[in-house]
Amino acid sequence: MLSRVADNLYWLGRYLARAENTARLVGVHSHLLLDLPRGVSLGWSPLIAMLGADGGYLSRYQDYSEANVVHFLITDRDNPSSIASSIAYAREILRTIRDGMPRDAWEQLNALHLFMQEEGEAHLPRAQRQAGLTKVVDGILLLHGLLGANMSHDVGYHFLQLGLHLEQADMTTRILDVRTVDLIQWKTGDELRPFQHIQWMSVLRSLMAYQSYRRYEKSRVSGPAALRFLLQNREFPRSAMYCLNKISACIAKLPANRATERPLQRIRALIQDANFERLLENGLHEWLDEIQIGIGQIHDALAKRYFQFDGVESSEALQSQTVAA
User: Which residue ranges does the record assign to the DUF403 domain (predicted)?
Assistant: First the structure.
């Protein structure tokens, strides 16, 4: 497989996961604000922090109003992490490689792109927002189904899965990082203590994990239990450990890459050995930062091994460079 194609498939998976997770975040946050008591407002800035986009946001907007944040995250094409941008990037990738991809997948992604172009702005107000976000999430889930059912599960599919699961692991840790900082600050207000479980529920719902969590834990939502489920569970598809195990399984089917295996093994060991009761009291933010740095190291190792070259080869050689299947 051409390295260019492998790179495209990897980023196709990442963009699809990014668009889906961003849509879920905006939808769940809108509902969370309705569940909190009067006088308590989390604002909209945490959503920008989750995506690490504060610099780009503040360069164009003066405040973190609901209208500005929602526009920035859903339809702003100048924001590379917005839903519209992620879908547009994914569509462009699929357009360039569609000869080797299921035709139904192209038609579905193109329809989703056209929806965002033509009707995205109309679904920004709160009354219409949930319908638009649901269409995005359902459309991407349908696309995953089309790719999984109709695409050959060969080396290209493994690169697609690498991107999807690496992006999901990154988004899971980002959501936990920002939400948990808010929860820790709540401990200083005794009047807010009874409502802490509401925000933990929003964390689970952001990842469509609430029902699965209740099946496993069979108890009221709590911080340590939610962290254990979203980070250590080996069976829930959006938990960090599940995603890392899937990445390991995909790498095992590709040409050897020791540089990727090392940070992957280190992160899995950190998650497996974590004491979340102790980390919630002190050090969880720094611990999650270390996990996110490790995820970045995995991406760098994958890019260097499969998608980039050291400049020794000629441009013609670069164009013909292949990844062995």
Answer: 1-307
**Residues facing residue 2 across a β-bridge:** 322
Is residue 187's pLDDT more than 70?
Answer: no
Spatial distance between the Cα atoms of 15 and 5, rounded to a whole number of angstroms: 15
- Total domains in the chain come to 1
| Alpha-carbon dihedral angle through residues 122, 128, 131, 132, given to the nearest 10 degrees | 30
Whether pTM exceeds 0.90: no
Residue 232 resides in a domain: yes
- For the chain, what is the largest distance between any 2 Cα atoms, rounded to a whole number of angstroms? 67
Secondary structure of residue 51 in the 3-state scheme: coil
Tokens of 194: 């009874």
Cα of 138 vs its chain's centroid, Å: 16
Nearest to 276 by CA among 236, 198, 223, 235: 223
**Per-residue pLDDT, 257:** 75
Domain that holds residue 153: 3-320
**Rounded distance between C-alpha atoms, residue 5 and residue 148, angstroms:** 18
- For residue 283, the model assigns a pLDDT of 86
DSSP per position, 175-233:
HHHHHHHHHHHHTT-GGGGGGHHHHHHHHHHHTT-HHHHHHHH-S---HHHHHHHHHH-
d(CA 237, CA 304): 27
Q: Is residue 325 part of a domain?
A: no
- Coil, strand or helix at 120: coil
Task: Quote the tokens at residue 311.
Answer: 């400049």
- Is pLDDT of 93 > 90? yes
